[in-house]
Every structure is written in structure tokens, then in C-alpha cells.
């Protein structure tokens, strides 16, 4: 007996809005063994946000924002509170009106289409499960509403339960589940119909660290298996780096940088992105010479060194120098480019050793390194020398 034998409501007739989703569902169901993955890769839709403006009263929350998301892409909207990321997701979902601009799915405008007719899967921060329904019934509900036949529902629910490791909890109510299990049910309900687009609004924020890490792995694997377009909202840069094909960093209603996790981490466009994505050392320097993509800079203590240039607008004058903590090394005083430093703190974090330093310029610097089995942990007050490679530093506006 399939799990979907737990009745919710009788199936309804599919309408024009659910028909494309059902066609995609049947395409995957009909695919021969070994071809299902290829079929799944084709169900993700493209999303285009064109000059969208969003307002709350007189306040502009989104300022002519444009963004193109490729079919099957995992794109994260990353930014601090008030940056506009949740507003943008709500507009894509249809929960908020678009004051200006257009939102297109596979080239067709949807900004005037009601949310329930867009055919998107949605995962909320607070799970939003039906408390009187079992796990099976929660997952099956959108398929019942779309008019999917009972045999297909049973097969799909079994598949989702297996993928999300929820088989042992199939007949439990949400109140009998842990927070992590409830979130997996919410994800299962969102993907059950194989929607072309899945929207996730900070779905991991209510989970503890261990559950968050395990759920990250599950979401990443789901995306690889199913090929849906996923738009994921978070303020947690670790989640963004771990999950995304690309990340759009938002600030004050605008995208300040769009790129792969590696691009944002290694080549941030400005000091806002550098501070928000990963741990950063940002040192005040003076650009004294610019040569193509390199600049020679001087710190307040008079030490000079070279660094890459992140933006074409960088010229002579005050700037910020970015060097990531893991790129800083303790070296001997004779090492070319070595800077004298004073240890202000040293913390053993298991596999990581974090050392806080103060340079001769007065600037504070953090170093992170893998803990060696016989490495000496520097003591507070030690005088040391540090260095980094020119390729690991960037001058930012």
C-alpha cells in the first residue's frame, strides 16, 4: 500500500496553471531508468527581473533592480536585514505587488499573475505545515490540489520520503517531529510536484548548527538530483557559499555584486562585499602607484607592498586593502615583505588556530591557520612577523 492512501481530499481537475507542472511531472515519471536525471535537468525555468521597483509608502525598498536567473540555477539572495532580499523574493512569489518593472518566467510576464497560479514551490522559515495532517498528507497535499492521480501521488510521496529520509516518520503529525524533520517535510511538500521554480525564504534560520549543516547537504543534493531553479534567501554567508551556483549580494535595494561563491570571496567588488562575505582584514592604505591590475600601496607605518585592484576606479589616494585571515602567515623576520606585529590574542578552536595581531601601523589583523599537531600557539604579547602573497590581496574602493 502506498503512503498516499492516507486520504486528504479527492483530486480536483487540473487547470491551465497546473497543467505545465503536471506535464513535467509525467515526463519524469515516464522517463526510462537512467534517463530521469536528464529529464529533471530540463524542468528548471529561467527567471528575469527587469528594473523592478518596490516601495513601502514613500520608502524605496528595491531600486530598479534587474537580475537574470538561468534555468536550473541555484541562486542565493544574500544581504543584511533591510537590504531588500525578502521583498524581492515576495515579489517573485507573487505575495507583494511590483510597483514598477517586470518579472518574467521563461520569457512570459508573471507580475500580474496571482501567487497560487504561478506554480512555484515555496519553503518558509516557519515551516507552515498543516498541524492536523501527517507527514505523508502534508507532502501529498499540493498533488491532490493539482489533480494528480493517486498512483502517481503514492509513487512521488514514497520517493520524497526516501530522498529526505522521512520514511520512519511518514504517519507522524508535525508536533511529533523535531525542527529539522519539520523543515524536511516542508521541503518535501515544496518539491513534490516538481515545480520549475522553488523559492526558499531563510529556511534554515530556526535550526541549530548541526541540523543546519546536515540540511544544507540535503538541499544541495536535492538540487543536483532534480534540476529545479532555486532562489534562496539568507543573511548567512556560510549558507550562501555552500549552496549557490551564484550569489547576488544586496544592499539598500540594489545588487552590489553578482557572481559565483569563489568570485565573491576572492574578488569582492567593494569593502561592503568583502566584509559581508567571509572573514576579512580591511587595512587602511594609501595607493601610491597604479600599474594595470596592480597597485603599490603604503600603510600608516610606511611599509609598502603590492596588491591586486578590484575595480577600475581605483586610483592614487586612500583605499582599503583586503587580505583574508587564512592568507596571513607567521614568517621569519628575514622574509621579503614581512611586517612586524604584536600578538593581542590567540584562540585554539579545534582544527583552527585564530591569532589576533596589531601591526606597527596600529591596524588590527586576524590570522587563521590549520592547527598543526606540534605547532606552537603564540602567546599574548609575543612579537612576531607576518606576510601574505601579493595574489591574495585586493585594493578596494
Automatic annotation (TrEMBL):
Gene Ontology molecular function, alphabetical: ATP binding
Highest taxon in the source lineage: Bacteria
Keywords: ATP-binding, Cell membrane, Membrane, Nucleotide-binding, Translocase, Transport
Gene3D superfamilies reported for this sequence: 2.40.50.100, P-loop containing nucleotide triphosphate hydrolases
Catalytic activity, as annotated: ATP + H2O + polyamine-[polyamine-binding protein]Side 1 = ADP + phosphate + polyamineSide 2 + [polyamine-binding protein]Side 1
Pfam families found in the cross-reference section: ABC_tran, TOBE_2
EC number, as in UniProt: 7.6.2.11
Database matches in InterPro entries: AAA+_ATPase, ABC_SmlMolc_Importer, ABC_transporter-like_ATP-bd, ABC_transporter-like_CS, Mo/tungstate-bd_C_term_dom, P-loop_NTPase, PotA-like, Transp-assoc_OB_typ2
UniProt xrefs under SMART domains: AAA
Enzyme class (EC, first level): translocase
Subunit structure: The complex is composed of two ATP-binding proteins (PotA), two transmembrane proteins (PotB and PotC) and a solute-binding protein (PotD).
Cited function: Part of the ABC transporter complex PotABCD involved in spermidine/putrescine import. Responsible for energy coupling to the transport system.
Record-stated family: Belongs to the ABC transporter superfamily. Spermidine/putrescine importer (TC 3.A.1.11.1) family.
Protein name, entry field: Spermidine/putrescine import ATP-binding protein PotA
Species in which this protein is naturally found: Pseudaquabacterium terrae
